[in-house]
Amino acid sequence: MLDILFYIFAAITLISGLMMVLSPNAVTGAICMIVCFINTAALFVLLEAFFLAILQILVYAGAVMVIFIFIIMLLDADEDSHSYLRDKMSVAGTIVGFALLVVLIFSAFVSSGALPETALQAVAENPSGEGQGIPFTTSAKSFGYSLFTKYMLPFQVTGFLLLASMIGVIVVSKRQEEAK
Amino acid sequence: MNELLAEFLRGYTATNEWSAIMPEIMLALLALGLLVSEMFLPKAQHHLIPRIAIWGQVLIGVYAFSCIGGCLTSSGSFFSGMILQTDVSQMMRPFFLLSSILVCYLGRIYLSQQSLAKTEFYHLVLIISAAMMLLVQSSNFVMLFVALETVTVAFYVLVGYCRTSPFSLEGGLKYLILGSLSSAILLFGIVLLYGVAGNPQLPGASPDSLNFQSLQAFIALNQFTGGNLLVNVGAILVVAGICFKIGAVPFQIWVPDVYQGAPTPVTAFLAVASKAAGFIVLLVLVQGPFLALNELLVPVLSFIAAATILFGNIAAVTQRNLKRLMGLSGIAHAGYLLIGVVAVMRGVEWAVYAVIFYLVTYLLASFAVFGVMAITAKADDANQQLDDYANYSRKQPFLSGVLTLGLGSLAGIPPLGGFIAKLFLFVAAYQAGLYGLIAIAILGVVISIYYYFGWIRECYFGVPTSEIVEDTCGQSTVADRTLLGALVAGTVLVGVLPAVLPIIP
User: Fold this and answer.
1) Which of A132, A158, A179 shows the shortest C-beta gap to B207?
2) Where are the domains of chain B?
3) ipTM of predicted complex
């Protein structure tokens, strides 16, 4: 059952990814990208990485895509400026992308350092006391434990980082009332 | 939650000693308080906000200064290894506070000429100051990166703060793009180190491999057994990221444009505090995690220092825009300071304090010069040419005197603080056997005298090229004069009696 689901989601991910690159309309491309992201989240769920799946939906399919569509709307991208492999940069990018794909496939399946069958540990529910560090698990709970114990100070400072960037957006974009 | 887990987590929260970072917390609260007071104060009372910012920081400064003496026995590791307080980090707290107080003061002068948002400026300056204090204390790469990003993101905003000026926006955009690039380089280096030091198949691998101490142990062990390529690449990338922040040579490309575009107080803040934070972080890194990599890093940093000194000084010679001139000469000062860092790596321990001493004199002299520039600046802040200062001494005898002493100290003229600071650095370099670097530095100092004194000559003997327009700007108040006078007096006092600064042991 899981295998069939995996193949379905993987196929949709690949097809929508390809359509995103090939579609002449920028908005269609963006929607294909959302489909791709949601299916990647589904793949994470199949791997029992629920927290990553939630983050994928919230951050990528939600926030990032809103920005993308916003920018497409602002820039008013036209459909005509579409041509494959005309300039050197896109040729170079394509070559590098396929080279990376070949390396990944080779190292994952062919070479001697191929992925071991069962070396990945089962996901632990709670951090255990062994060793000095909080072991990395994919459950949301362990992220919470780490953030509010060991990484308390960086977590608080991150709040100020976000505040500073929010203030910055307001300063740069707010319409200023005229000088009195 | 079971008992075992609670006990385990308590081990991490045991060292969460909030009182150890009291100055930072107070600064952050003050920053928030400014925003709140803007909301609730009536409009007529808004002129109080800069005063609250400045006097609040003075109070915090008094508190932080008393921490140096040791009334607070807070030195050691806190927050489960996130921060490590040393006497260096305690010394840097008043340093950052002093610079942010001066920036707030100059910002008040600057903002009175522009119709821009006011409270947010002070808010961001305070946040940057608090984050810099945490940055120099951090002993874990997570803490280091978060604090560094807080500083950098707030600086992106401050550089582009004057959104009516195309120069400021251009500078802000350039700083945003190049700063993000450097953060990416730094992060890539950190991730490489994290990955390789967490590999259980290598000796000394640690589950907490972002911590400076465990990283130091790991690197030392691996250098002993022949070195590791990934460690070297990661360390080089981290150092490159830091070199970007201090404006050392292969990464100096952003400096002139950003310094020119940014509002003058922000330029001063970038030149002094941002550079100081970068150097302290570099010192922490080369004395901590990268201690075993000296063989690799000493030649790299020596080469960077030599190139930085030569580039900064030679490029500044033909510069007529004063903010670009200060930027390029700031690059040269970064080069001198790098010599101190290399001396520390060659085993001269007290060179750390020579670097801090240099930073203090640089602060005093730079803020004197930038203060005069902020007072003299017209509404078009980015366009301050050397010709504007033609015959300046006739119009403003006091300010041009301040300018002369500040520039003299930056150039390193004997009775002033800058001379003593350079002397300490060169003595440290001599003890470390860096003869070639000393020769290059002295050559650089000679070149720098040319352009610093060109400015002074323009003040006293320059012939105005155009009709003098009767300008209303550039009048200094009594408070301005007192502050600038105090800065200059500090410069002279440090030069005559270096012992007044209890930095060099």
Assistant:
1) A132
2) 9-500
3) 0.88
